[in-house]
Amino acid sequence: MVARTVLITVLCLLASPTTFATRPAWKWLSEPSDFTLSFEPEPSDLSGSLPVPSRRQAVDESYRLPNNTSPIHYHLALRTAIHENSRQFSGTVKILFEVLEPTTVVTLHNRRLTVQRAFLHEEAAGGGAGAQIEQVAHSTAPDTEHLTLTVSQLLPAGSRYYLRVEFEGALQNNNNMGFFASSYLDNNGNRRYLASSKFEPTHARSAFPCYDEPLLKATFELELTHYKEYNAVANMPRAGAPTPDPDNADYVTSRFEVTPLMSTYLLAFAVSDFTIRTADRQTVYARPNVFEETAYPLEAGNRILDALSDYMDISYYDYMPKMTQIAIPDRGTGAMENWGLVAYGEPVLLFNPAINTYRNRKSVTTIIAHEYAHQWFGNLVSPHWWEYIWLNEGFATLYEYYAAQLAYPEGEYWELFTVEVIHSAFGADASETVRPMNWNAATPSEIAALFDTVAYDKSGSVLNMFRAVLGDPVWRYGLKTYMSARQLDGATADHLYGGLQEALVSLAPTLLPATVTVRQLMDSWTSEPGFPVLTVYRTYGEQQEAILSQERFLSSKRLPSGHVYYVPYDFTGGHAPDFEPTPAGYRWLAAKADKIATGVPNDQWIIFNRQQNGYYRVNYDAHNWELLIEALHNDPAQIHHRNRAQLVNDAYNLARAEWLDFAVPLRLMSYLRRETQYAPWTAAGSALTYLYNKLRGTAHYPHFQVYANHLLLDIYPTLAIDSVAAQETLLQLYLKQFITTWACRVGHGDCLAKTKQALAAAYQARTPVHPDIATAVYCNGLVDASDEIFVWVYEQFKSSRNQAHRTVLIDALACSRQPAQLESFLTTALGSGAEFDALLATERTRIVSAVYGASREGVDAVLDFLMVPSRVTEFVQRLGQSALNSAVSNIASRTNNQPELDRLNALLVSLGSQIPESVATSARSTVQNNFNWFNTLEGLVVVEFLEQMATTPQEQ
Asked: At CB < 8 A and 24+ separation, what contacts does 420-424 make?
């Protein structure tokens, strides 16, 4: 009774209607939660290879700047009073430009800046702006965001002038775009404000008038006038001490050295009261009350930058004198690679070993590596146009894992590339409407849309495929050639192909057939959407041959396509397994189909795509699948663990796309009982989640529980799920969390008991759970925890200043299955006032999504919460209409039986016009699809298989 009183006293206070107030509600590279159930695929002769067609689609070129002038140098002066939460700023930019064609018009970009005056100046003999020539007329077109400045005289080609523009603007509000404001609470509960920039891809124009296209590079000289107790930081080191502002004794001006040539989107600066940690030529800026959390990112930054400089054989410090990392509060999990000033959301830069998990450490390490890789791929060499953004993001995705591995070999970060990047890319790239890697764009919204899974995961996967095929020496030689030729300039895909071709000529002239170019090979992947499935049909004759064919893989249908991907393939067989890829070991499928000799005996399995370096799926004839299943059940270790993950992922997705009987992946995954490696288990996670989501709440769910428990039977007892051993590696910790999650999810009694005991012991000692088991112990321990323990964990969340730690605790609290606890927790998402000042908008929405994502009890809690009309009004005011629509859609996705549908229908009636009719219609359709699944071939096969397994005695 006391516990219930505590809960009501603490959390019902948060629910007081008088505390509600309106507050509006690249997600990028964030770690998925295991606890949130998501809802949703002989060498050939190439001499006759197809020509490379031009596939550059047309766009509205009116958004592009004319080519009559080009920038050379910017002198930008900005003034801000962010310390007093003023959102207004003012500035003057002087742009030295060259006239390329005779003109009377200079065109720049401007987004919502008020241009007060503009002047044309001569270029002084000694440099800088000289005498004023005239004040120029100006106007801005809202659609193209072109600032047109018209002069009274014809400017001759080859001449150079300064354009001086005075302007005012408003800081954007916590939206991670342009020049924007954010804030944090200090140790006394006072809110402190700061301003920082994020200009990629088209937001520099919202901070100052400029040539806002990536190829139009220039040098930048920056000065920031700000409150004297604040500090300013930018791409370059400060040029001397701040100088007093003659107009206001409370202000100073910080000036910075001139940058190298760079694109406008890479200019960066911040004004704040942050503290600074320094080591060598690197620094980390963060708010003062998290200073202790900057030690690891500083160490990692130095190690990773050195590793990349060595690998690229081009030193970062040959171009930039320093590197600064800055942690921006309330910026989510995004990051931006500004040259010399990399900006991060706090959860992906700050690290506190006392409270942050191994997953946080992994995220911090790999995201630093991602942003540091951009110092070469994007900063030293920028894309000629956004069409080639994969030259930035694809390389950065590849090297976020590779460079992290170089800097921290013991972390085994490269082992995560297959399951986190390649398998992720497959999911998005199996759509009929997906774009290719090369894809033109014009409007700001079109350009922003290019920063997608294709740019990151697919491009990283394709680049890694060619890295493996060409071999590391050729690859690195080619990259250095490419970057040396294009340094401080823009690049297209052809420039990369040329660098790699030159490397082949120099180091490996016979690696490819003489008539084949790198451009032909790579363009078949970069200029076409999707990826192929390689079908291997063994003839089982005396010649030991196989027929290979390729077809574009789509998750939902098959469509005829004449396109031929140049598919690099290698293979090994059960008679002499060899899973080490070598450049000499690859052959090429350069046609729709081909017959090859394999040398593999007919009674032995064969596997193509060793270690899954190739970006394609592989399907086999029925007999070879049987041989593979038998081999996995007899001795999984005879097949490389990455290929075991490949087999699981391919079989499941081929079955979903109706290339395979669904019994094949179910039988294959049964081998997991003998699996001890993380990659195959996590590859199985999507299949297990899919089946769980389909079967939970139905009469068939107990059969799924038998299947899942059978898989866990051998590995679960080997893992100490409620303690941490000093020798556990990163991958072992990943594996332990995965196994614990599934064991507790399917009702494993020992798992639930141990996590509950571990949490109770931590509560009794008033000691937080060790961070490396915190996610599993907190979540599973809270399933039916007392109110005292629930409040204790909530208080940890409320008092934590570490955003990554707060996210772990949000997800943990959502794991409760007690209706009163969940109702109280959901209420906190809407609270306002001093009690809730520390809650971020992203945390409020995460509370809701975490609750309905954790369990059916959580779904019911959200459903009950939204059945109260006054709460719905507050919900929309606080979190936004999209959050309500999303909640309804997710409730529908998790509705599997008639009583659940009755509850959903009652909610839809209660909400009425508060949600669009399309959302309600879609929700009902989703549920009907859930019901109909049991009458599909896939559903019938799954149900039959699981029933037979559950009712047939299994080997113990």
From this structure: 421/397, 421/457, 421/460, 421/461, 421/464, 422/457, 422/461, 422/464, 422/612, 422/615, 423/645, 423/649, 423/683, 423/686, 424/453, 424/457
Query: Would you say 823 is a known binding-site residue?
Result: no
213, 223, 293, 371: the catalytic one is: 371
In a 13 Å sphere around the CA of 787, the CA atoms on its Cβ side amount to: 16
Q: What type of residue sits at position 451?
A: F
Structure tokens at 894: 């998790």
C-alpha–C-alpha distance, residues 325 and 286, integer Å: 9
Instruction: Quote the CA–CA distance of 88 and 80 in Å, as a whole number.
Output: 7
Q: Is 354 within 8 Å of 22 (Cβ atoms)?
A: no
For tokens 């391919």, name the residue. 650
In whole angstroms, what separates CA 770 from the centre of its chain? 27
Model pTM score: 0.93
Contact 311, 473 (CB under 8 A): no
Tell me the domain boundaries of the chain. 69-273
CA angle 376/382/386 to nearest 5° reads 135
- What sign for the dihedral angle of Cα 203, 348, 468, 302? positive
Burial class (CB in 10 A: 0-12, 13-18, 19+), 672: buried
Between helices 730-745 and 749-765, what is the axis angle to 10°? 110
List for the chain the helix, strand, coil content (%; round to 5).
45, 20, 35
146, 108 contact by CB (below 8 A): yes
- Strand segments (E) across 412-502: 489-491
Distinct helix (H) and strand (E) counts, the chain: 31, 31
Model pLDDT, residue 271 = 98
- Is residue 298 within 8 Å of 284, Cβ to Cβ? yes
* Per-residue pLDDT reduced to its tens digit, 902-924: 999 999 999 999 999 999 999 99
Close Cβ partners of 554 (under 8 Å, ≥ 6 residues apart): 41, 430, 431, 432, 530, 657
Burial class (CB in 10 A: 0-12, 13-18, 19+), 584: exposed
Is residue 219 within 8 Å of 234, Cβ to Cβ? Answer: no
Our answer to whether residue 371 is catalytic in this structure is: yes
pLDDT value of residue 14? 35
Q: Compute the distance between CA of residue 714 and CA of residue 367 in angstroms, rounded to an integer.
A: 35
Q: In the sheet where 160-170 sits, what is the strand order?
A: 129-135, 114-123, 160-170, 88-99, 69-80, 219-227, 251-255, 243-244
List of the chain residues with pLDDT < 50: 1-32, 41-54
The annotation status of 109 as a binding-site residue, yes or no, is: no
Residue 835 marked in a binding site: no
- Is 931 exposed, middle or buried (CB count within 10 Å of its CB: 0-12, 13-18, 19+)? middle
CATH class of 69-273: mainly beta
Query: Is 46:566 a contact under the CB 8 Å cutoff?
Result: yes
Tell me, what's the pLDDT at 30? 39
pLDDT of residue 833: 80
Q: Is 614 within 8 Å of 533 (Cβ atoms)? A: no
Residue at token pair 């999810």: 745
Q: How far is CA 554 from CA 317, 416, 439, in A?
A: 45, 25, 20
Distance CA 203, CA 110 (A): 9
Sheet holding 146-155, edge to edge: 103-109, 146-155, 137-141
Tell me, what's the pLDDT at 21?
A: 29
Q: Are 822 and 815 in contact (CB under 8 A)?
A: no
Confidence (pLDDT) at 557: 80
3-state DSSP call for residue 597? strand
Tokens 């706090």 locate to 346
> How distant is the alpha carbon of residue 181 from its chain centre?
23
Residue 814 CB partners (closer than 8 Å, separation 6+): 35, 822, 825, 847, 850, 851, 853, 854, 858
The pLDDT score that the predictor gives to residue 797 is 95
Query: C-alpha 752: how far from its chain's center?
Result: 32
Please state the φ and ψ torsions of residue 919, each to the nearest 5 degrees.
Answer: -70, -45
